[in-house]
């Protein structure tokens, strides 16, 4: 590791102690360990596995101690700490080995079961391609990157895009984002991702066929940040617009759209954003719907233009994009940037924090679950390198490269995958802007000269800052540009340079290691690296040959590349592992050959550019040889330079966007289906809610009257044909239903004529309410639920009579159970406008006067949530899982989980739990994990105090059903009030966040099974905003007046 030069003096001091370590007066630890070798322990156990910064501080103190006795005591103390660190490391290695072994066993079992379910024998294609020809994500190595190779081809592709009017939504939540003067490095959240998403939005907005790009982020109006981050909208300046002016429109282009969510007037780090994600989703949903309507008026012929894709960046935005794409039923893309499981492993290996401390600090388990959900929901996962797939994504339950190849082979052959889905991994390296870069062919002498016709331009100020270090500044410059971080391996580079005399004679070395003022003020790790570099310079007497300037600006970086190229130098990245290596592409654009680590992204870059050499970062001699070869062989240097300049366009933003848009085009289009009717009309127009003819049309096209709801074993069955229209048999049923309903409307109209209030003239009734009260109480028994509902009804009796408030019952019950509950509780179905059933997988409306029953099922909601629903393949896997859960302790082998056909529907597979004893029923996270390993995507809900399990589509939930009502009927989320108890089903957290109001009834649902939430992947406190102004808590065992007081505090009703 970098920064370990002090170890030499430390080891020498230990050896100097000599017999003192074996003396009878030595510490008990050393006597117990017998022939303990602190030198060997330190080198083998500490240096290779831990950040030894603290030990370094201790050694500095020990070295400064003059008393030999005290010095020896300190050294023995350090030996004990070394032994303790080594013990921790071995313990951690054991735990990691067990975890990896368990993961391997689970994955192998999942593959076997998935293969068994996919009944036919595997063909050669399903066994996978040869390792030499196919990477784990399925792209051929021989084909390199599937990009355009010429300007003519790009022009041909661009001409094919003419006429398209695509709308793309990007999401990046954390950090400070603006189009110009980005404050990169201001904090850990405002870094390379911010630059990437802004440039991606700008580049996509400049592409032919793309009409509008929205980059959604957080609006920050805090006193400690610039005012520009509080602006709701910022238009990005686009490039290459002169060719597409005829395609520009009033709302076209690329925009940063800032959505207000989270604490007002406060800028917070990304780890604290999780409780506020639902609020962002609701705000983003409102923006996208409004923008889709605007674009529809401009370029869509009056029909909404829905996003062609929603692209989330990082885990928080991935979670948001999954919910937003589910609410809109449009395709989702995801880019992780950095991944939680990889970070967790790295932090555990450091040994400084326990798993609990890591989660408390970084909310790492919530982040990992968000990334798993992104895998569940994404059509495409975009990565920068193959290394990200092979070493990071394969750690996740939701992605198995082996199973992915099998599924892809079956899809190519049109063979059923039995409900299994795997997102497609696409390697699309980040793009760059090269149009402003002009590589220079001159050298230092040529630049210094000039004539009257072509006077030389003044030298950039950074050049003299660098060249003042060199005795001979005309020698080729070896340039390294990286932070003073041990992972960047800068000390090994200095050693390689210092110990290779031919290289020192031929070249200079420039180290751009960030900015610093005083070394003592630097973070300890960075200071340790810098001190090591300075000591090595002194050790090898490299004065006049190595430059290490203290300061540089971001705008100086291009000039630094130019200086290195003018000296016919080389750019080097010797990092132990480099996820991508953007600096390698930047250097190549300025004509610099590269020497780079063979671990990570540089392998892909070298494969495309072919402009340098790859090295083993641990092999000092390999580094020196590669640098010497490029510096000494001018023909090789010229060839590498030429290759880099020739192929660099493959990493341009236009090429990136072309590949990006081609991937999107390959996705199956999805959008809200009710917008299109048989006659081309739009059935979602809310401008005339009193038009009963329009309402009848809505029903005839979108709804089926039913008493019990849809029943069936297969999720693939549907009332819709392949085009999303009603089958002939269902049409006749609906015609009969509509006639029956219209007779009911006529009766209601006659009542209205007699002066009685009509509640049936508009369908559904919730469209005309001022407020919607959603009762989502997961009570332990029916009587408690009945009592709570009566209190809520009584609290707003006056407003209900006036018709300004409507009610929705949201529960895990089936519609049949709800009907029985209403009858037993003395309620009328018409007391509620809608019913969200089966944990959010069914949606019904009340239909007073209908002959076929009081309930109408909205099965367009089914088509809205059925994305990646596993159907029969999922059901078989769940039944097999249920049969494996038995009570082994009693020896009776009694089944604990029982499938319930009576409670199951097409989009909800229900299971009853015979026992609620702790430890007998696997927690929800374990069942979700087992299904993800088999590529089955669904939402598992433990409900009714742990007595039932509902398995529903992955993007279905009770909270998502509310968003559907907004998208479908225009019911404003800000006008919804959700009533919950103190606890509830495992989907409880989704009901507490968002722009809707929430009233928590204290004393209700308090005795809900605590095991349901204790076995979560992350604590509820990580995702619930307890200080939200939208949440009100009633008094203990509240009365109707207490509930009314809470509603008044929320501003829903007047006093």
From TrEMBL:
E.C. code: 2.4.1.14
Provide this UniProt record's keywords sorted from A to Z.
Answer: Glycosyltransferase, Transferase
Q: Matching NCBIfam families, A to Z? A: sucrsPsyn_pln
- A GO term, aspect molecular function: sucrose-phosphate synthase activity
Give the family, as the similarity comment puts it: Belongs to the glycosyltransferase 1 family.
Provide the top EC class.
transferase
Basic and acidic residues: compositionally biased ranges? 103-115
Annotated Sucrose synthase first GT-B domain residues: 167-435
Domain (Sucrose phosphatase-like): give its ranges. 772-991
Q: Where does the source fall among the domains of life?
A: Eukaryota
Q: Which InterPro entries match?
A: Glyco_trans_1 (IPR001296), SPP-like_dom (IPR006380), SPS (IPR044161), SPS_C (IPR035659), SPS_pln (IPR012819), Sucrose_synth_GT-B1 (IPR000368)
Q: Which residues form the Glycosyl transferase family domain?
A: 472-645
- Name of the protein in its database record: Sucrose-phosphate synthase
**What are the recorded Gene Ontology BP terms?**
sucrose biosynthetic process
Tell me, how does this one assemble?
Answer: Homodimer or homotetramer.
Query: Pathway it acts in?
Result: Glycan biosynthesis; sucrose biosynthesis; sucrose from D-fructose 6-phosphate and UDP-alpha-D-glucose: step 1/2
Positions of the region Disordered? 94-147, 441-462
Function in brief:
Plays a role in photosynthetic sucrose synthesis by catalyzing the rate-limiting step of sucrose biosynthesis from UDP-glucose and fructose- 6-phosphate. Involved in the regulation of carbon partitioning in the leaves of plants. May regulate the synthesis of sucrose and therefore play a major role as a limiting factor in the export of photoassimilates out of the leaf. Plays a role for sucrose availability that is essential for plant growth and fiber elongation.
């Amino acid at each position: 590791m970098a920064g370990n030069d002090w170890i030499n003096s430390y080891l020498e001091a230990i050896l100097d102690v000599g017999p003192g370590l074996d003396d009878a007066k030595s510490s008990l630890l050393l006597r117990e360990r017998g022939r303990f070798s602190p030198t060997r322990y330190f080198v083998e156990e500490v240096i290779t596995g831990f950040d030894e910064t603290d030990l370094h501080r201790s050694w500095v103190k020990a070295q400064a101690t003059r008393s030999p006795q005290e010095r020896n005591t300190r050294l023995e103390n350090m030996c004990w700490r070394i032994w303790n660190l080594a013990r921790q490391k071995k313990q951690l290695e054991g735990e990691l080995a067990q975890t990896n072994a368990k993961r391997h066993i689970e994955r192998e079992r999942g593959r076997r079961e998935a293969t068994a379910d996919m009944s036919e024998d595997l063909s050669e294609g399903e066994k996978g391609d040869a390792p030499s020809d196919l990477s784990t994500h399925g792209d051929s190595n021989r084909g390199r990157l599937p990009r355009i190779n010429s300007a003519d081809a790009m022009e041909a592709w661009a001409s094919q895009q003419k006429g398209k009017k695509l709308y793309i939504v990007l999401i990046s939540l954390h950090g400070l984002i603006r189009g110009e003067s980005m404050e990169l490095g201001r904090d850990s959240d405002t870094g390379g991702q911010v630059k990437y998403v802004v440039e991606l939005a700008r580049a996509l907005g400049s592409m032919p066929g793309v009409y509008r790009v929205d980059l959604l982020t957080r609006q920050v109006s805090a006193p400690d940040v610039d005012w520009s981050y509080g602006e709701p909208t910022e238009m990005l300046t686009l490039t290459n617009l002169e060719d597409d002016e005829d395609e520009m429109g009033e709302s076209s282009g690329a925009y940063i759209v800032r959505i207000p969510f989270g604490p007002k007037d406060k800028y917070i780090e990304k780890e604290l954003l999780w409780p506020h994600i639902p609020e962002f989703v609701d705000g983003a949903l409102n923006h996208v719907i409004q923008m889709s309507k605007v674009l529809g008026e401009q370029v869509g012929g009056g029909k909404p233009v829905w996003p062609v894709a929603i692209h989330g960046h990082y885990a928080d935005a991935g979670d948001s994009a999954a919910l937003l794409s589910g609410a809109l039923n449009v395709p989702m893309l995801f880019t992780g940037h950095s991944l939680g499981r990889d970070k967790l492993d790295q932090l555990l290996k450091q040994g400084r924090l326990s798993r609990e401390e890591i989660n408390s600090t970084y909310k790492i388990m919530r982040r990992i679950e968000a990334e798993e959900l992104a895998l569940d929901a994404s059509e495409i996962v975009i990565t920068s390198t193959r290394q990200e797939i092979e070493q990071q994504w394969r750690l996740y339950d939701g992605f198995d490269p082996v199973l992915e190849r099998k599924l892809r082979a079956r899809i190519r052959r049109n063979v059923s995958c039995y409900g299994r889905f795997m997102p497609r991994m696409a390697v699309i390296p980040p793009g760059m802007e090269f149009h402003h870069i002009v590589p220079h062919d001159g050298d230092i002498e040529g630049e210094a000269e000039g004539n009257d016709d072509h006077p030389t331009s003044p030298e950039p100020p950074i050049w003299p800052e660098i060249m003042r270090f060199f005795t001979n500044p005309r020698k080729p410059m070896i340039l390294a540009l990286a932070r003073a971080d041990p992972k960047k391996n800068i000390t090994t580079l200095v050693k390689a340079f210092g110990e290779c005399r031919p290289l020192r004679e031929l070249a200079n070395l420039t180290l751009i290691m960030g900015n610093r003022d005083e070394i003592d003020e630097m973070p300890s790790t960075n200071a340790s690296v810098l001190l090591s570099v300075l000591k090595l310079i002194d050790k090898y007497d490299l004065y006049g040959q190595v430059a290490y300037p203290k300061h540089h600006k971001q705008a100086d970086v291009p000039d630094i590349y130019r200086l290195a190229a003018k000296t016919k130098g080389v750019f080097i990245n010797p990092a132990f592992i480099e996820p991508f290596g953007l600096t390698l592409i930047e250097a190549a654009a300025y004509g610099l050959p590269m020497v780079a680590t063979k671990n990570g992204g540089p392998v892909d870059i070298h494969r495309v550019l072919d402009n340098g050499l790859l090295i083993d970062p641990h092999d000092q001699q390999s580094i020196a040889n590669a640098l010497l070869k490029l510096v000494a062989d001018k023909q090789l240097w010229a060839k590498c330079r030429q290759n880099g300049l020739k192929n660099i366009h493959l990493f341009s933003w236009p090429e990136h966007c072309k590949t990006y848009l081609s991937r999107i085009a390959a996705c199956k289009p999805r959008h809200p289906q009710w917008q299109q009717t048989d006659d081309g009309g739009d059935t979602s127009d809310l401008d005339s809610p009193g038009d009963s003819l329009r309402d009848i049309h809505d029903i005839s096209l979108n709804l089926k009257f039913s008493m019990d709801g849809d029943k069936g074993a297969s999720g693939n069955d549907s009332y819709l044909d392949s085009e999303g229209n009603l089958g002939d048999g269902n049409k006749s049923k609906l015609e009969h239903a509509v006639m029956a309903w219209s007779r009911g409307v006529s009766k209601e109209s006659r009542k209205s004529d007699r002066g009685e209030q009509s509640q049936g003239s508009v369908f559904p009734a919730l469209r005309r309410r001022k407020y919607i009260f959603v009762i989502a109480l997961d009570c332990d028994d029916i009587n408690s639920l009945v009592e709570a509902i009566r209190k809520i009804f009584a609290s707003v009796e006056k407003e209900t009579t006036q018709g300004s408030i409507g009610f929705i019952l949201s529960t895990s019950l089936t519609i049949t159970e709800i009907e029985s509950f209403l009858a037993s509780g003395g309620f009328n179905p018409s007391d509620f406008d809608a019913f969200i059933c089966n944990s959010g997988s069914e949606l019904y409306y009340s239909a007073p006067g209908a002959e076929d029953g009081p309930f109408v099922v909205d099965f367009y909601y089914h088509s809205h949530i059925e994305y990646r629903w596993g159907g029969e393949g999922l059901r078989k896997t769940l039944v097999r899982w249920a049969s494996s859960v038995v009570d082994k302790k009693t020896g009776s082998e009694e089944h604990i989980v029982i499938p319930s056909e009576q409670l199951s529907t097409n989009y909800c597979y229900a299971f009853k739990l015979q026992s609620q004893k702790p430890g007998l029923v696997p927690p929800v996270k374990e069942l979700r994990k087992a299904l993800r390993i088999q590529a089955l995507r669904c939402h598992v809900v433990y409900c009714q105090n742990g007595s039932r399990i509902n398995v529903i589509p992955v993007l279905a939930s009770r909270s998502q059903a509310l968003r559907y009502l907004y998208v479908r009927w225009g019911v404003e989320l800000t006008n919804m009030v959700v009533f919950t108890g103190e606890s509830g089903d495992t989907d409880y957290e989704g009901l507490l966040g968002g722009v809707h109001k929430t009233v928590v009834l204290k004393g209700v649902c308090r005795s809900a099974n605590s095991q349901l939430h204790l076995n979560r992947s992350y604590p509820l406190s990580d995702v619930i905003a307890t200080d939200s102004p939208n949440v009100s808590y009633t008094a203990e065992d509240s009365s109707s007046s207490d509930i009314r007081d809470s509603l008044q505090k929320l501003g829903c009703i007047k006093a």
